[in-house]
Structure formats: C-alpha cells, structure tokens
Specification:
With about 120 residues, the chain is mainly alpha-helical. Helix content is about 45%, strand content about 5%. It is globular and about 55 Å long.
Length: about 120
C-alpha cells in the first residue's frame, strides 16, 4: 500500500488497498496497533481436520471429511501475482497455502504441507 501511495496517491492501485486497512491497522485504547497477518485460518483448520480424521469420528461420516476438504481448499492460493515475479522477488504462489487465507497470498511451506495432508 505504501509503495502504491508513493508512486501515485490517486492511483487505482492505491485505492484498491483502502478497504483492507482495518484488517491490519486500528486504534486501540493504548494506541495504534498493526498486525502482519489476517489470522491463522489455514493452519488451524488443517490441524483440526487432521485431529478429527485421526479419531473414530471420521469413520462415522464422510460428510465431515468432504466439508473439511472443501474448507481447506478455500484457503489455497489459486493464482500468482500479476507481473514479473522475479522483478518483485516473489516466489510462485499458485497452488500453495498461506498461514491464513488466500487473500494473504504469501506461500508458507509448512502450511502447504499441512493443506496437502488434508
């Protein structure tokens, strides 16, 4: 967001960042707060699903496994960043799992491994 603002504070690229500010920046009773991630949804879900599958609950219903599998797929990154990945020092994203949601877009090898297990 900052890079887009420096390049052109009136650009469409900068304006597209504005709706997501509250996900990462907010004012609390003791001052300004910031977070680098928007959660740990992918990580948490992968372990929860693996825990359920390792119990007798998995034998009782296939519906739960199907639902869990579809939920973990929602977190998978489905496309790479536009443009030249090498120019921006980015790795291939497509097919990987981030720590939280696909919106985060940073592939994490551990999260990808856990997502594939499910």
């Amino acid at each position: 967001m900052l890079c887009c603002w420096v390049e052109d504070p009136y650009s469409e690229a900068f304006k597209l960042h504005l709706p997501r500010i509250a996900d990462y920046l907010w004012v609390a009773e003791d001052g300004m707060k910031m977070q680098g991630y928007n959660g740990s949804q992918s990580w948490d879900t992968a372990f929860a699903v693996q825990a359920i599958i390792s119990t007798v609950l998995a034998e009782e219903s296939d519906a739960g496994r199907v639902l869990a599998g579809s939920v973990i797929l929602c977190f998978q990154v489905l496309e790479d960043c536009p443009g030249d990945l090498n120019f921006w020092f980015r790795h291939v994203l497509k097919g990987a799992w981030p720590f939280s949601t696909a919106d985060l877009g940073w592939p994490i090898s551990d999260c990808t491994a856990e997502g594939l297990k499910v």
